[in-house]
Specification:
Elements (H helix, E strand, L loop, with lengths): L1 E4 L3 E5 L2 E5 L1 H10 L5 E8 L2 H12 L3 E7 L4 E7 L5 E5 L12 H8 L3 E4 L7 H13 L7 E5 L9 H10 L2 E5 H11 L6 H11 L4 E5 L5 E4 L4 E4 L12 H14 L4 H16 L18
Parallel strand pairs: 1-4, 1-8, 2-6, 4-5, 8-9, 9-10, 10-11
Antiparallel strand pairs: 2-3, 6-7, 11-12, 12-13
Amino acid sequence: MIVGMGEALWDVLPEGKKIGGAPANFAYHVSQFGFDSCVVSAVGNDAAGDEILSVFANKGLCSQIARVPFPTGTVQVTLDACGVPFYEIKEGVAWDNIPFDEHLRQLAQRTRAVCFGSLAQRSAVSRSSICRFLDLMPDDEDRLKIFDINLRQSFYTKEVLCDSMRRCNILKINDEELVTISRMFDYPGIDLQEKCQTILAEYRLKMLILTCGTNGSYVFTPGIISFQETPKVTVADTVGAGDSFTAAFTAAILRGNAISDAHKLAVEVSAFVCTQSGAMPELPAKFRGLMS
């Protein structure tokens, strides 16, 4: 089972609302590569929560969604002239209150890869559930714990970031987030690759993925560096593109692809998602053929 754990919400875009949240985006795209995937989150006892569950069911996406006495999460998304999103994330919502129960304990035991971020850890309840889930996963060499850092507004602390980097074995970060982290953790110098190598070694990571927007992306491991240019495409919006990158990369690695091949697939999938409106477009069949 491949799990996306954290926020499930509605992205309220200029053209209307679309289902969103990085964990749901990740789990949906992983499922398109033939893996059993599951979204773990919480929604409210309201119409918006009913609709989220209905969308997941219609997409054939497995979910372990608690119903809690808080409103279902929403995010007001505005796009700049280049299609880059800016987010106004509502607080005190359902996904801030993901409960830990026996179902989550059992799911953790059979999870091969999980993707989590910093946003859902802004509250003590969801942070505790995420950490317990990570700690209960079997500690096999081939289990992946992917921290897709996703810094949003001021919803993160040094403690949460440090603790998450200790618990993960793959870190995904973009160039702007790396600058923020470097200031927070007092990493010297200005060279981004050197900073990535420092984090890779300090937290004994399997991999560190650095995305740099139009300037390409890198995958660092203790022995390999992979670089891929960013394809030039006509951008509808970039909502969910990073999540599709993570999903495609994870799926390819779990299928046994080489890091460079997994990286190439991830770049091409995320570029396609940028040409579509919203975070969960259906992927063309050609992408599945790029995996061994």
